Amino acid sequence: MRLAGADGCASRDIAVAELASLLGAGGVWFWETDADHRFAWLSRDLQRLTGVDAAALRGRSLFDVMGSGAGEGVDLRADVCARRPFRDFCFELRAADGHCRRGSMSGEPRFDACGRFLGYRGIGRDMAPPAETEEGGGALLSDLQRTLDAMTMGIVLIDRDLTVRIINKAFYRLWRLTPGDVDVGSPFRALMDINRHNGIYDVADEGWEDYVTWRIEEIKAGDVPPREFQRADGRTMIYSVTALTGGKRLVCYYDISDIKEREAQLADALEKARLAGAVLDGLQEPVFVKDSELRFVIVNAAFARMFGLEPEAMVGRKDEDFFSPAEAHASASVERAVLATGEAQEFEEDSDLSGPGRTRMVRKDRVRTESGRDYLACFLFDITDVKRRSREAEQARQHLADVLDSLPAGVIIYDRDDRFVLANKELRRTLPELEPVWQPGNSFREAIEYGRSIGYFRASGDAALDALYDTDRQAWLDGYMTRHRLPHAAFERQNADGRWYQVFDGWTDEGTFVGVRVDITELKQRERQLQESLRANELYQSLIDNVPVSIYAKRPDLRLVYVNRSWCDLTGHSRQEAIGRTDVEIFGLEGEAFMEGDRAVLATGENQEVEETVTEPDGSCRWQIARKGTMVASDGSLYLIGSTTDITELKRREHELREAQRRAVLADRAKSEFLANMSHEIRTPMNGVLGMAELLAKSDLDAKQRTFTDVIVKSGNALLTIINDILDFSKIDAGQLVLDPAPFNLAEAVEDVATLVAARAKEKDLELIVRIEPKLHGLYVGDVGRIRQIITNLVGNAVKFTEAGHILVEVTGRSVARETCLTIRVTDTGIGIPQDKLDLVFEKFSQVDGSSTRRHEGTGLGLAITSRLVALMEGRIGVESTEGVGSTFWFTLTLPNGDRQAPTPVTPVDVTGARILIVDDNQVNRAILSEQMVSWGFDSCAAEDGPEGLRVLDAAARLGLAVDCVILDYQMPVMSGAEVARLIRSKPVVAGTPIILLTSVDQSLSNAAYRDLGIDAHLIKPARSSILLETLVGIIQKRRAGTVCGKQAVPAPPPAPVAAPVPAIDPGDAHGLDILVAEDNEVNQLVFTQILAETGMSFEIVGNGRRAVEFWREKSPRMILMDVSMPEMSGLQATGAIREAEASVGGRVPIIGVTAHALKGDRERCLEAGMDDYLAKPISPRALLEKIERWSVLSSRKSCAS
Q1: Which residues face 501 on adjacent strands?
Q2: pTM, to two decimals
């Protein structure tokens, strides 16, 4: 422990034991308790100072010591239980010699760092020498102390020397002191000094000593009778001194501040009660109050006079003493209800007590005092005169209302407090929306606010005020109220219903507001019509003067009354020269012909239009069209109205147009003839080439010859497709394409397209999915050939621009009467289309990538033809795309329903509800297959991979549920379809379950493989729904009939003819790969296949540079033939990636570049990219084999074999 030194002295460290020793010398000892308030340690000074053995207290509760103290032990116990500090608690302890020792204790609670209570620690001190009294005497003193502490009067006992011997708790409380401030043994002067500093005494500093001397002398003198004095803090005290034997004095203090306050309150209440009584007696209206027993407790003079009595004579009595039993009973029933519910009762009654024919208003209410006692208060008001005046006022008001209702103008009245009085019938009729605020008591401002909230008062006639209507609500209201308070105001206002009113507002001398509203809508309409007519006249005058047509008007005598500016320009005569004259007077004899036409029009009333020729002064001829008719003015006057238009220029252009049309007809005929010739001249040799190639393919050819024939057919078809696109577009553009509608099966048409494109999709490892809404399997009328062409173009584009993922063909529709609105959507996961290119995709010769290095070939006519065909069928086409995510092309067609529905395959009754398990990793495929199963009446379950499917089969077997068939995808991650089938056949419980295997065109297994796996049927994806249903029904029927054999395969329908697949290398020979070919062109792939197949070397073909790098890492080929120009990653980029990887792993594979360019510098570019050699297209078998021989691939194999 470190103690601070005094001023100028250094602080020093001191041990706890040393500190305890020092304090013990001053009569102080230490103690400590545990958390249960039991003494855990006491210093040795306890026994030295008090004679009490510390061991006797150790383990005892602190509450034992409290029990032995004075009455303040109860408070101390509360402090200890609340874990609060305590000071100077007096107690008695019995020493070993039997003597009682009096001491005091102070303690502080202890807590650890987490706030947990550990116990108390404190000090004790000896207060007196050993007591010689017996136990009875000690108990008597303790009882005396507790008795004094229980008193509310402050008591101080002082001895002859004015030393304090006893102080009770009330004294500390009254003087706002604590035992720590002053205690027994202190001089009485100390009490006064402390109170002086606490602001208790209102004594100036210079008079303090005199005041203290006077007080002490007064105490010494003897008894001081009780007297009041007021402290500086405002409290009122009674002070007294009682002289005791031995010179002692008992000084007492009693706080009577609350008593004084209550006395003042009581006096005030008495005064108020006297005032209330005087007020009640001064009232002319009778008033009385009853208690809960319905006895009168207060009766004013007016009420007593009704009975000819004094108020005192009625107090304490009941209604039975003054009324008949029936009246008393009725009154008591009402009053008990009021006392019970607290709800006031107010009613009118006629009573002769108030005089003959008088009516009074009776109000009875419950009054509850602060003490909780209930009383009934009743007030009686004579309302005879009020009701009479009210009737008179109502009659006058009704008369006024009748007069106002007869007025054709709306009238509204507000009183001097701006409260609504009435609105007449006309105003309510014209403004019914404001009825809710035209109620008695509503203010004018409330009406204005409400009207604004529903759109009224927008056009008030004050432009500045109207400008605030939508921008500043409060400013608008204030401005409107300002105008409302004007003595007189007149303005026009348009209401929300569009009607206009003339507003006249004014105030009477009594402060009543009267507003008159006159409907001026028709007047405003006439004003507007007049203004519009004036504007129209001005506009027509300006228009007539500025039109390039000669216009004139004549009276029946054929004299001109009006000519426009163009007439003047055309004729060369001014307006002044023409008005009032005839055509003969103006144009001479030539004008007579004009006037003959005028007379015919006036005579028949029929309009006339003729072409006229006029000879100009220079001798040239001018052509003009003259139009004439009659007009009857509003006053009945007849006029001839005419116009003349110079058509000389139009005649010249008409001649030019006829000549141009003649030339266009000749050009169009030449174009049609050219297209016909082109169609014939191009198709004839192409048909010869393709026809002979197909005949050659049917002859006895070896594999090599058949491959060459396939290349011819494929290339010829590709060229024919381009030609057909050009010719089709030309026909569409010329309007010569005619549709050939006929009934067709939509599902078959879509599935035909999917089958044709499936091979191309599989070559790129794409999933081709077809979903046709089940209800659409029917016949529709349309040009099925053109519809197939549209779908083929869209699906072909999707395959072309998609490198990974799937293509979904989705067909939906809804029937409307005898037609069906079909929507076909083709969604891919390809490269997508930039947003700024979406508007161009359907333009002819337009491609998203139009650069010379574009990845995909094409004429740019496919989508243009597709959009024209859809438009020709009165459909719509569109595209939605996100670049890098994929595209959705869609088109809609509305086709008539066929006369008969296509035969819908009917599920045999005995297979309905069959359980089908679908195992496919593609979520879209699972959804479509599940939808088909539901539409066919099967109970299906779908699993996303092989292990999950096996678990489903095992769970069904454990539950005794037989699965009738498993539809199994061949190509899946984790576990292939073949592996799943093999595991199913190895489990005796489910080994007999039929399996349908779905494969792509290049995944067909051999018959031996099907037999080994026990496959019941296999179908090529995308599987046609009709074939899938027939296969399912057949297998399930055979299984349920017990005729199906688990090892007998059911052959699937043959797929559509596709190009011969590239021979694949068995994965087991991956590390023996001789040559890797990277080539994206299908024809070139076939050429490489035919050349390399004859060498006996193993080879693999990939379609782009990225796949070439991946296969190099996986297969480690001995040589790579690398096409320079490929999608995703060019051959040059792929070579660089391989060379960079070789730098870290070692080794170098020979790479021979293959390019179609024959430009100077191609060889240098290949070598710079890291290639070892160069080969130009077209590929020559001899040149290719020489390159292979040169790089020792073949010789290396021979040397290895030997």
Answers
A1: 493, 519
A2: 0.32
